[in-house]
Amino acid sequence: MADEKQLPKTPKLDELESGPWPSFVKEIKRAAENNPMSRDILGLLELSYTEKIAHWKHGGIVGVRGYGGGVIGRYCDIPDKFPNVAHFHTLRVNHPAGWFYTTEALRAVCDLWERHGSGLTNLHGSTGDIILLGTRTEELEGTFSELTQNGFDLGGSGSVIRTPSCCVGPARCEWACFDTLQFIYDITMHYQDSIHRPAFPYKFKFKASGCANDCVAAIARADLSIIGTWRGPIPVDQAGVEEYAKNGIDIQADVVDRCPSRCMRWDGKELSIDDQWCVRCMHCINAMPKALRPGPERGATILIGGKAPILQGAILSSVLVPFMKMEPPYTEFKALADKILDVWGEEGKNRERVGEFIQRVGLGNFLEAIGLTPRPEMVAHPRENPYIFYEEYFEEEPTQAQA
Amino acid sequence: MADEKQLPKTPKLDELESGPWPSFVKEIKRAAENNPMSRDILGLLELSYTEKIAHWKHGGIVGVRGYGGGVIGRYCDIPDKFPNVAHFHTLRVNHPAGWFYTTEALRAVCDLWERHGSGLTNLHGSTGDIILLGTRTEELEGTFSELTQNGFDLGGSGSVIRTPSCCVGPARCEWACFDTLQFIYDITMHYQDSIHRPAFPYKFKFKASGCANDCVAAIARADLSIIGTWRGPIPVDQAGVEEYAKNGIDIQADVVDRCPSRCMRWDGKELSIDDQWCVRCMHCINAMPKALRPGPERGATILIGGKAPILQGAILSSVLVPFMKMEPPYTEFKALADKILDVWGEEGKNRERVGEFIQRVGLGNFLEAIGLTPRPEMVAHPRENPYIFYEEYFEEEPTQAQA
Amino acid sequence: MAETTAERKTDIGPPHYQRFLPPIIKKNYGQWRYHEILKPGVMVHVAASGDKLYTVRAGTPRLLSVQTIREICDLADQYCGGYLRFTSRHNVEFLLTDPDKIEPLVADLRARGFPVGGMANAISSMVHTQGWIHCHTAATDASGIVKSLMDELIEYFSSLKLPAKLRLALACCLNMCGAVHCSDVAILGIHRRPPKVDHERLPKVCEIPNVVASCPTAAIRPTRIDGKESVEIIEEKCMFCGNCYTVCPALPINNALNDGLSIWVGGKVSNARHEPMFSKLAVPYLPNNPPRWPEVVAAVKNIVEVWAADARKFERMGEWIERIGWPRFFQKTGIPFTKQHIDDYRHADLTWKRSLHFTA
Amino acid sequence: MAETTAERKTDIGPPHYQRFLPPIIKKNYGQWRYHEILKPGVMVHVAASGDKLYTVRAGTPRLLSVQTIREICDLADQYCGGYLRFTSRHNVEFLLTDPDKIEPLVADLRARGFPVGGMANAISSMVHTQGWIHCHTAATDASGIVKSLMDELIEYFSSLKLPAKLRLALACCLNMCGAVHCSDVAILGIHRRPPKVDHERLPKVCEIPNVVASCPTAAIRPTRIDGKESVEIIEEKCMFCGNCYTVCPALPINNALNDGLSIWVGGKVSNARHEPMFSKLAVPYLPNNPPRWPEVVAAVKNIVEVWAADARKFERMGEWIERIGWPRFFQKTGIPFTKQHIDDYRHADLTWKRSLHFTA
Ligand code: SRM
Ligand code: SRM
Ligand code: SRM
Ligand code: SRM
Ligand code: SF4
Ligand code: SF4
Ligand code: SF4
Ligand code: SF4
Ligand code: SF4
Ligand code: SF4
Ligand code: SF4
Ligand code: SF4
Q: What is the pTM (predicted TM-score) of this model?
């Protein structure tokens, strides 16, 4: 056991301990002091650094009882050399909305993970989960049950609804146009079964940002993107504007000229906004938080289809509902989401994201299927090609039209 | 013969004789007075107006000896009812560059066409030809030989180089950055054989505009679009600018604010252009022809691929050569054009326009094939998808890289 | 057939343009300094030499009888030494050196029914196509709609009251001969019923593999009809482009009951200000209603007048729409937005609204 | 395995966020009026009530040991009543009510090696992925490159001297877990050799039709290798996306000799000013050179510094490039423009320059 405790030689990784940015190598070593899995991961990673290749086998389905997701199975391809990471499965733990914690809750997770796994984590994964990085198959159930004892549950993986996430929103942001935390908590609970048990053609992600700044990158990374916005004029506090002007903001150059709809005027004293043209991009508000704020009627735009490039190329979510009120119990939203999941769940091909599905069947047909009427806000512009599917045509009664 | 001279009853068409815009119906009737073909076309058209359908059979290959193009064959689908338009073939006559004429030349064409055909024409067809609208097969040779007697020749149809056309250019425009007429005349003569004898997968069109205003719509309607432009600063005559300002042009709103590169400044007295950012769109020059003009070094941008939507959707020509000097004998241009025609002629599929061909093989590969080096001016932006064809890779010597 | 004794000439090409240039142009070729619009349809180009060339532009039906061409020649002989030209939009241009002749010429043209105008911030003649008068795939006539529409819009041809140029085009089928795909407002003839397969004729006149290959949406598949090779069309996949008919006469697509018109807006060709743009769908279908197509004329006139009233100086149709946004375009014109407006072809996903940038 | 007596709970979901909100947030929830950036990594939010919430943001390696998390918790206990949060970019945020505690906390964080910053016009922590430490398809490591690059760019994390926010991302394969496709600057691990087919294993572990279907460029076709069903890969058609490997373990694509990195620029997510944009290819290939990837670090640093020196206030990378144009971008950064930069996938033709609008 003695030299078992000995850390492997890692000349390459050691070079990553120096420098001003905090070092993940130090983290691994810190965990490795009293954790054999971390010791082996250190050695294995050093080998990858030397050989420039990963040492993991392909996938591997493991999980906890009754769940189809939440665990990413990993098996080392040279288990004899690194027995302690022969298994190195990751648990995805659903984070609390907005990533708020008490130290008490975090310490509880640390304690159980030290006992059940590598003692290594990611805070957080790109989808937002707490990542418990690596353990053996036998440890999964125990980890899970201790997690639940402490009020935590697994997040999503595989063809499920993935862990929904949201920006800090009303908890600490003056611009939140709806309660992102409450909303995300609500739908996370609403979809528990679909988060834990694969029932779809592929993954499905919800992300909610309280305004168009989109601080969780919902438009780029979520199948259903809920982004806060408003209706009605932007309230302008002229004194506040003047104060910013005094303190060195060039209102003309930095604000007015950068307005995408060019709907602002600044005469050196007064800032006027022709709100009918405002596209609610947030820029002027961002530039002068004390003086401007989102308009009176708050809600969200619902966009659909965002994803990474595999397979047809990356997709940015596009407008599905230009404006929706976002009040609990979110009945209208849930009805829409359920309808979308039904249609895509029914007709989507295996490994076809909803955005790819819509590309295949056509947005117009998709709208029909989910019962929405087409609106010009849904398009950047109408079609440029003349290839229109006119869905019905007349058959002539015997006539000499063709004579 | 008497009532043969009688015009058919055309109640529907007659409604199109009234109104301020000159009437094509009057034209047909005028020709019909002493031309049986025009009389029958009148009757046939009235029938189409009644039945809402064309009365022509599909295509029909006819032509003049030794030529594969220049004539569009047409046969009526009810020849017994309209014997004089049983054949109604159109001749496409190559117009003089810039569409300049003497009345003498035009009258000669009128005279021969009155004798050989319907006496109806289009001045001009959308490709630019003089369209001699409708005659019988037997008349084609005679029409052709009289045309040549009078110094005219047929234009293109079918899978040939189509009649090249150009804007009025230096003949009457202050903005021509090269001699469009001379250039178009030159390549029309250079490609005579390819204009008259199909040797390509599909049609190929050349259009030349003297500046970015593109008065022959070259970028939208030509496979190879030659559009004049310049290098170097736009000469500004400040007095001239002030004059426009006096005469009511709002320099700030109408010129400066409409500059796509926003590279102009107007202080009420002086107009300054930061030419390094100018994208040579022509707008400021268009707005103030007396005060501004294209820069000193003149030439053209060569763009490729423009076409209508059939089959893959419409294509706008895209940049192939950002700047080319355009001096006779246009050696550089012809070498490029010949290379393009070779590669496309060799590898293009039947009925595949060069723009569609480039889409299929990839612009990068096409550039390689014609021997041009990639330049950032050729793209609106680099690729967004990560699907890069890295054309070679290393094979490992026996090694434990994969161990 | 007229016999000709002279030996047969070929490949002589068009006459050299220089033969047709009036002396003032020969003299000042490439030396023009600037131009001014004097009044609707009349402009002057001033050369470095100080010479002035006056251009009078008039509209024509494009479909011209030799008699009328001769009449135009008479005018050219009388007013400008027998020189004239036509424009890329089928207008005729008289090239004068003597300003005193402008008024008489304009009067003479008007008297003979040739409208003077189509210059600068005006509607010019419509780029259009053959229609029923000569083409086999025409879903509608061309000249008749052009005549009906220009009768309604003539005031915008003969004046300078528009905010910018307005380019109109018409094509009688999806081949889009002309400029429909890049015009401020365009009218497009459309088929709306899949081709009827003539199983008798098809095997005799068409190469089945070519026919199958001709369909962009793979709606055509080979089949056998009582023993004979033929093709069948999967109707849900057909979007009526007519390409298979172009390739194979045994697939007629023209159909009186279903053919009609669509209207497209916001295209442009010039690089001035905004880059060139394709036209976009405004009205998916209007009935084919000769001889005056009232529905089409009314729809186009409405779009033109909403634009004319709302656009800023120099704003072409597409630039105006880009400023106000498509939702406002449909609102202001009162045109309903439908499923058919939403692209579902190759680049569809790029045409969807991928941001929150729209007016509330 | 740790036995637990309590009955098994499932589907309880995450803890309710309200349990974790500090009192000042509970009190002023949704009532924040504005914020101010006080200094790098420190901001204050002021509520309608007048209450002030101070946020101190610090960078972390994201890969954290439980020991370090506990250390962070100690700080939260000491300075802000045991409340803290993490951001969508993996920074940790301490939520203070007492301004006097800001300085001591900042000092303490620095002392423990946590850089304070990543706020406002700065570089924030990099969104990144697993790499060799946990993923089977990784073409490179993730944490190592992030560490190497952030060591070089730290001054832009801890200061406010950039013209705008700069968002960096890294993904270790084309699956692009994270934000590579929409980042100001992104690093992407790439494979460059087609998968090697393991003909022994393939028929046993993979559904051949699924494998064939998985290839976006139809580079995979079924075949028989000495009697056994398998697939072959048409190498010219393969662009190394790795999707077939995701679907079938018998098609390994990882390869030490050929895997490498590419660099992407100009993406953004926010709607502020410009609509969201995808990242575009800047550098097609750089060698995979652990432990410090000097080529990658140098290339990114160069791009960042050219932008920082040239961009105007509020101009994100993509907005800056749009203003100066791609030709100038390649000129100023000295990056060669190659065939590989030219798109040849689905929407290729729309990415070509379809106008004359470029700087001479
Ligand atoms: C752990 C994580 C990266 C990280 O280090 O943060 C991750 C890791 C993997 N992702 Fe991911 N993805 C992670 C967030 C993302 C994101 C970002 C997001 O969710 O906001 C994306 C882009 C957005 C999207 O969904 O399109 C993403 C797009 C993919 C894709 C491509 C999917 C697509 O349709 O384009 C795949 C491939 C697949 O699903 O087979 C993939 C597959 C994978 C797999 C399961 C590899 C595989 O092929 O099976 C990776 C497991 C790694 C491992 O060994 O743990 N991962 N993946 C992220 C999840 C952590 C968490 O739950 O919080
Ligand atoms: C006569 C003319 C229309 C007119 O009234 O002006 C015309 C008439 C025809 N065009 Fe066209 N095209 C004419 C200019 C154009 C243009 C405009 C241009 O050249 O600037 C285009 C769009 C630009 C382009 O080339 O893409 C055009 C795009 C087509 C197409 C679609 C080609 C494509 O690749 O998208 C077809 C279909 C085909 O080639 O089979 C076509 C086919 C035809 C055919 C031959 C019908 C057919 O399928 O065989 C038409 C014969 C009509 C007839 O009976 O005379 N015509 N055609 C124009 C030629 C007159 C002339 O020579 O001056
Ligand atoms: C005569 C003609 C060229 C020819 O060789 O035939 C011509 C001649 C002139 N054009 Fe043009 N253009 C001519 C077709 C075009 C076309 C092509 C078309 O319409 O199919 C275009 C592209 C249209 C488009 O973008 O869709 C065109 C876009 C322009 C522009 C840019 C307008 C804009 O703001 O977008 C200018 C600049 C201007 O008008 O200030 C221009 C300017 C001019 C000037 C002022 C150039 C000059 O200094 O002489 C000429 C007369 C003024 C005028 O308003 O017509 N010309 N011009 C064509 C007349 C067509 C007609 O009878 O109406
Ligand atoms: C804490 C966080 C939300 C969360 O729930 O975790 C957050 C918080 C704030 N964001 Fe954000 N943003 C956060 C991720 C994002 C993201 C997502 C990302 O980076 O992956 C974006 C989109 C980035 C993009 O466009 O690619 C984002 C785009 C913005 C913008 C728009 C910036 C722009 O000009 O494009 C603003 C407005 C501003 O900064 O003036 C903004 C503004 C803010 C403000 C000022 C909002 C407020 O009044 O409190 C917050 C602090 C300022 C700051 O600079 O961080 N936030 N913000 C995230 C901190 C990430 C980090 O640790 O750095
Ligand atoms: S998305 Fe908007 S509301 Fe949410 S944190 Fe960012 S700025 Fe605040
Ligand atoms: S929110 Fe954006 S669009 Fe609206 S006024 Fe402000 S800057 Fe302009
Ligand atoms: S394209 Fe340019 S040069 Fe040619 S006529 Fe038009 S404005 Fe003059
Ligand atoms: S030509 Fe166009 S881009 Fe250049 S300065 Fe004039 S308006 Fe601006
Ligand atoms: S548009 Fe169609 S119908 Fe009209 S002339 Fe061209 S090919 Fe014939
Ligand atoms: S009309 Fe077009 S879409 Fe329909 S079958 Fe023929 S080719 Fe295919
Ligand atoms: S980017 Fe690729 S390699 Fe990296 S974690 Fe995601 S799937 Fe694995
Ligand atoms: S790596 Fe991608 S492109 Fe290559 S064969 Fe596999 S799926 Fe096809």
A: 0.97
